[in-house]
Specification:
Length: 57
């Protein structure tokens, strides 16, 4: 698990290395974090629906 976490961290850092302009770099970082948050909200909603017995018909 720790190796996977370090790999994700390295991919994240490599993705933003030498991007260029300060505003563009910060915009993409903000967009990445916003996307991560939306993914985890959707994951939470799915797990909650599974836990409460929602019928996926």
């Amino acid at each position: 698990m720790m190796k996977t976490t370090l790999l994700i961290k390295e991919i994240y850092l490599e993705g933003f290395k030498n991007l260029g302009h300060f505003l563009i770099k910060n915009y993409f970082k903000l967009f990445a974090w916003f996307s991560f948050m939306l993914f985890f909200v959707a994951l939470y909603a799915f797990i909650f629906r599974l836990y409460t017995g929602f019928a996926f018909d």
